[in-house]
Amino acid sequence: MKANVWTGRNRLEIQDVPDPQILNARDAIVRVTSTAICGSDLHLVDGYIPTVKKGDILGHEFMGEVVEVGPGVRNLRPGDRVVVPFPIACGACFACEDGLYSLCENSNPNAGMAEKLMGHAPAGIFGYSHMLGGFPGGQAEYARVPFADVGPVKIEDGLPDEKVLFLSDIFPTGFMGAEMCDIKPGQTIAIWGAGPVGQLAAASAFLLGADRVIVIDRFPYRLRRAQRTGAEVLDYEEVNVLDALRDMTGGRGPDACIDAVGMEAHHPTPAMYAYDRGKQAARMETERPYALREAIMACRNGGVVSVIGVYGGFVDKFPMGAVMNRSLTIRTGQCHVQRYTGPLLDRIRAGEIDPSFVISHRMPLSEAPRAFELFKNKQDECNKVVLTP
Amino acid sequence: MTDRFARALGWTSLALGTAQLAAPRALTRLCGVDDAPAATTVARLVGGRELLHAALLLGAKNPAQWAWTRVAGDTMDLGVLGRAAANRTGTRRARALCALGAVAGIAVLDAVCARRGTAKAKGPLLVRASITINKPREEVYRFWRELENLPAFMVHLDSVRTLDQRRSRWKAKGPVVDLEWEAEIIDERAGDLLAWRSVPGTGVSTAGLVSFTDGPGGRGTVVDVSLEYGMHGRKLAAAVARMFGEHPEQQVRDDLRRFKQVMETGEVVRSEGSPEGHRALRQLHQRPAQPIGGRA
């Protein structure tokens, strides 16, 4: 089959690889019908997530048709249409029983690797480094889906791929980012990053009752997309974000701040950017945490900082004094997708939201390397790419 | 205690080495060798060597054994100072003899520390690991007590055959030769614990204890495993570990992780990067994350 393979830092190739086979009784093989490129894939391609290996198939947002199931899968049959959540979860361990699916204790066969970097290991994730399992991703014609009796969501009513594909990651991720803010009526939520996750976090914040949402970015076309959710926007290259947020919130700051940027943020001041960029290039720091630092400084006293942007390792100059002295709550996590797929599918069915509004490009899988270029370099107003094998 | 002794020697090395590098002339004068043309260079080299001792004694997890490097250094110093004393007269000779005496005294301390360290390293090897399994205690115990189940998650075992209620025959794969030994259960409390040891004279000397307790708040079962490899078994365990490239402690932890997977999900979880499931060695040599192809 054809698959999008990482062959080195900033190098991707469409290669012919063997077709997947059932390895565990609870596996299913899915013929991928739609798959997407995620902002977090860029961290892998750029080489900032440790333990990515040449030959790895990328992609953790995908859906398709079941073509084969292992003897342990009773709820799916060949021909079923499914959306596959990006964290792999067994459904039976302590974490899964608590709804913390992205922390499944059984789905990461390389847990020992992750423990060295993070103390304890999170769940396995499709196409997301070897310390998160060494599972091939879904930017391919076929994919093996472990614990197929737990994660995949059956789509039975003919909803088109584009409406439900993002249940695999970015819609639940944006939604969880907003949910972690514990939004109450009248509240203002600020979101760093107007990418697809930031846009869906903005839409979710409104669904959850936010009064105002303010989205911060530097790309006008992305800010325009965020505006369509009803959010106000700030271009951090035009205004001082901390001052602007203070002015917009009566001097108090947003009630909650969402970091939808993660480890490769930018800073308008060249010297500030150079400081962390240099350290990151020298591998003295894995992150460029400008958005996170600013979200912490901006948040009102006693507010929530919700982190859904991806971080890989260690942050320098972390404003812990602000967090502690101002009673901030930091909430974070890889999304526990399986917890949200049912309720969010219901919202899509009910017409409350159509997450396909984030799509800007539709391309064949064979053009994945070019699609990554467009997406990474923000060319052609690229916002979200859907690939079809 | 031995470790604290070794660390103290490490700090001494650090102080002496720093002094020798910073003020080599003062040291050569103190030892009465300041008249030799190469004296400061030698003092600096010896200072560098002292820093090496310091790094080993202060950085190592089990420092005492590394005191042997100090013993070797002392021998070298004694030789140099002995020759210096023999070739000199007057105050210089007296100073060299004083230094010789001091080094001899230190050498005794170093040797004592190093011997204790070696003795400690040769003692039985103890390995402990623990995991929480989200299943009732009875069920977890029953699976383990059925010893023939063990190879399902202990990858180094080929088979376990029960001979009677107490005795069983174990076979392990080795890359070169297969190992076989007999074990007997020496204590058993149904649902609580199981202790066994290898039968003397069957080639391997090992003993183990596994205990099962209810998890906090009644959530799952905590499984604690302690293994001991005796003098003979220790060498064997180390050899096997070296052949597989894994530390015995890693092996036990990996075994428990797979045990948890078998109990909670029905089997060992595999990925394309780690097709055999969780295993330390495989984590160092991952397959790429793409389908395996060919062999099913």
From TrEMBL, chain A:
Residues 26-153 form the Alcohol dehydrogenase-like N-terminal domain. PROSITE patterns: ADH_ZINC. Keywords: Metal-binding, Oxidoreductase, Zinc. Gene3D superfamilies: Medium-chain alcohol dehydrogenases, catalytic domain, NAD(P)-binding Rossmann-like Domain. Residues 196-264 form the Alcohol dehydrogenase-like C-terminal domain. GO terms for molecular function: oxidoreductase activity; zinc ion binding. Its cofactor is Zn(2+). The keyword Cell membrane does not apply. SUPFAM superfamilies: GroES-like, NAD(P)-binding Rossmann-fold domains. The keyword Oxidoreductase applies. Belongs to the zinc-containing alcohol dehydrogenase family. PANTHER family: DEHYDROGENASE, ZINC-CONTAINING, PUTATIVE (AFU_ORTHOLOGUE AFUA_2G02810)-RELATED (PTHR42813:SF2), ZINC-TYPE ALCOHOL DEHYDROGENASE-LIKE (PTHR42813). This is Glutathione-dependent formaldehyde dehydrogenase.
UniProtKB/TrEMBL annotation, chain B:
Residues 133-256 form the Coenzyme Q-binding protein COQ10 START domain. It comes from the Bacteria. InterPro entries: COQ10_START, ORF3, START-like_dom_sf. Residues 266-296 are annotated as: Disordered. Residues 267-279 have a biased composition (Basic and acidic residues). CDD domains: SRPBCC_8. This is Coenzyme Q-binding protein COQ10 START domain-containing protein. It comes from Nonomuraea glycinis.
